[in-house]
């Protein structure tokens, strides 16, 4: 189900929604699934340097490997935005045997 319209979605649209949900759900915030989500948002307040970039890549890859079995991530791109605590995510991977490129200007902002 589409989280904004309530209509049925399938395929790449469902995958994209799932990826956004996994990456923007803070780890430990779901009561019955404490391991669901990622630490990505908590990293957005860290300094925009190569160490933070590497930690973001690891957070993205591990969260998607754990929670999105339909996708095998082959490349992760992360561009820090002009303002502190903002980033744009680009993913490439294999989805059901097909090579896909997903790019999304996710509103990745630091935890408030």
From TrEMBL:
Domain of life: Bacteria
Pfam family, one: GPW_gp25
IraD/Gp25-like domain sequence ranges: 13-91
UniProt name for this protein: Baseplate assembly protein
Organism: Comamonas terrigena
């Amino acid at each position: 189900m589409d989280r904004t319209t309530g209509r049925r979605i399938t395929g790449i649209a469902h995958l994209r929604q799932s990826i956004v949900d996994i990456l923007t759900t803070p780890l430990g915030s779901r009561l019955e699934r404490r391991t669901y989500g990622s630490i990505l948002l908590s990293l957005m307040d860290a300094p925009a340097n190569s160490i933070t970039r590497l930690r973001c890549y690891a957070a993205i890859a591990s969260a998607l490997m754990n929670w999105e079995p339909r996708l095998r991530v082959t490349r992760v791109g992360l561009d820090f935005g002009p303002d502190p605590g903002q980033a744009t995510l680009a993913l490439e991977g294999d989805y059901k045997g097909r090579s896909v490129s997903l790019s999304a200007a996710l509103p990745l902002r630091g935890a408030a």
